[in-house]
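> example.struct
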C-alpha cells in the first residue's frame, strides 16, 4: 500500500470497531443460532456501513472540524447537541462499565489467585482510575500496538480453537432468542466516532470511502467467523465473556496469552475513554478537574457496585440505545449537510430517501423490541 496514511486509517477504524463487543458475539450466537445471527449481521452490517459512510460525508462536507456533538449543534441545533451529549455520556459510561466487568475476567485467567472476579475488577478499576486522576498525555500509540497484539492473540485463539469445533455444538435457530443478538451485534459495529480522526490524517481524502467500506466488511466477517468458531467449540457452555469457557479446552498457556493482551486492550481503552470523558466535562461544560474525574471514573463504578455486572446485558442495552440515538442523529445531520454543507466532499452517497427512513425504522423497531423482551 503506497499511502501509509491509508494503512493507519484501516488499523484505527478496525481497532475502534473491534473492542469489548467481540466477546459477547459467541454467546449470543450459541443461544440464538447461526441463521438469526447471520440475519442480524447482514441487516445491522448494512445499517452500520451506511451510518459510517454518511458520517464520513458529513465530515467531508464541513470546513470546520467537529465531533458528533459539534456536527449535531451545527446542523440540528442546541437540542440535538443535548441529546447527543446524553448519548455520549451514556455510551462512554456504559463502555467503561463493560471494561471493568471484562477486566476482572481477564485478571482471573492470568492470575489464579484466591480472589473473585468482582474483587479483581475493583483492583483494576482502582489502578486505572489512579492514572486517570494523574492525567495522561496520550497513549494513542500504545492503544495502536495493543490493538495489534490483541487481534493477534484472538487470531491465535481462533487458530487453536478451529480443530476442536464440533458440528453438534451448532444451533441453526432458536426463535425464543431471536432478539438476543440485536444489541450486542449493534454495539460491536459502532465505530463512527473514529471517522473524523481518520479523515484528519488521510493524505488522500478520496480514500475515506474505501477505508470505511473495507474496514466494516472485515469486521463483519471477522465477528461472524469468531462467533462460529468459539460457539462451535463450547456450544451451550459458551460463556458471556467468550474466553472463560475456553480455558479448560485450549489449555492455560494460550488462554493466558489471550488474557494478557485482552487485559491490556481493556486497560488502554478504559484510560482513553475515561480521560476523554473527563476532558470533555472540563473543556465543554466547565467542570473543575476533580469533579470531572469523579464523574468519569466513579459513574461506572457505582453501576458496577449496584450489581450491574452482566456483560451481555450491558453491551446490549448500550448498543441498542446509543445505536438508536446516534444513528438517527447521523441520518438527520446527513440530510442537512447535503443542503447546508460548506465544502465539496470527495465522495457523495446517492442514497434514496426511502433507505434513510428504513434505517431509522430498523433502529427504532430493533431497540423497542429488544427492550420489551429485556424488561419482560
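> example.seq
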Amino acid at each position: 500500500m503506497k499511502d501509509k496514511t491509508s494503512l493507519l486509517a484501516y488499523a484505527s477504524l478496525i481497532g475502534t470497531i473491534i473492542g469489548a463487543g467481540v466477546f459477547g458475539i459467541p454467546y449470543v450466537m450459541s443461544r440464538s443460532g447461526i441463521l438469526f445471527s447471520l440475519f442480524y449481521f447482514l441487516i445491522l452490517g448494512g445499517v452500520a456501513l451506511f451510518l459510517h459512510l454518511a458520517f464520513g460525508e458529513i465530515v467531508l462536507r464541513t470546513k470546520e472540524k467537529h465531533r458528533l456533538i459539534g456536527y449535531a449543534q451545527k446542523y440540528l441545533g442546541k437540542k440535538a447537541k443535548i441529546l447527543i451529549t446524553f448519548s455520549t455520556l451514556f455510551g462512554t459510561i456504559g463502555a467503561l462499565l463493560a471494561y471493568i466487568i471484562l477486566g476482572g475476567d481477564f485478571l482471573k485467567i492470568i492470575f489464579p489467585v484466591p480472589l473473585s472476579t468482582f474483587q479483581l475488577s475493583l483492583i483494576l478499576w482502582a489502578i486505572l482510575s489512579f492514572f486517570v486522576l494523574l492525567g495522561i498525555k496520550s497513549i494513542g500509540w500504545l492503544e495502536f500496538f495493543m490493538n495489534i497484539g490483541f487481534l493477534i492473540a484472538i487470531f491465535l485463539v481462533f487458530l487453536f480453537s478451529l480443530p476442536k469445533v464440533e458440528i453438534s455444538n451448532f444451533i441453526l435457530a432458536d426463535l425464543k432468542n431471536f432478539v438476543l443478538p440485536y444489541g450486542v451485534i449493534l454495539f460491536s459495529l459502532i465505530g463512527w466516532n473514529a471517522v473524523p480522526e481518520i479523515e484528519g490524517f488521510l493524505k488522500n481524502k478520496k480514500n475515506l470511502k474505501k477505508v470505511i467500506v473495507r474496514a466494516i466488511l472485515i469486521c463483519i466477517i471477522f465477528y461472524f467467523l469468531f462467533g462460529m468458531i468459539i460457539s462451535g467449540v463450547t456450544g451451550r457452555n459458551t460463556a458471556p465473556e467468550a474466553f472463560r469457557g475456553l480455558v479448560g479446552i485450549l489449555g492455560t498457556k494460550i488462554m493466558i496469552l489471550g488474557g494478557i493482551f485482552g487485559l491490556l486492550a481493556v486497560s488502554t481503552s478504559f484510560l482513553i475513554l475515561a480521560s476523554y470523558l473527563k476532558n470533555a466535562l472540563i473543556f465543554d461544560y466547565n467542570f473543575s478537574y476533580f469533579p470531572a474525574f469523579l464523574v468519569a471514573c466513579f459513574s461506572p463504578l457505582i453501576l458496577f457496585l449496584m450489581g450491574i455486572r452482566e456483560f451481555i446485558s450491558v453491551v446490549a442495552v448500550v448498543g441498542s440505545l446509543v445505536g438508536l440515538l446516534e444513528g438517527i442523529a447521523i441520518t438527520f445531520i446527513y440530510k442537512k449537510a447535503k443542503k447546508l454543507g460548506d465544502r465539496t466532499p470527495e465522495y457523495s452517497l446517492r442514497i434514496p430517501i426511502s433507505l434513510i427512513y428504513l434505517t431509522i425504522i430498523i433502529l427504532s423497531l430493533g431497540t423497542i423490541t429488544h427492550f420489551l423482551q429485556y424488561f419482560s
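> remarks
Residues 28 and 180 are 6 Å apart (CA to CA).
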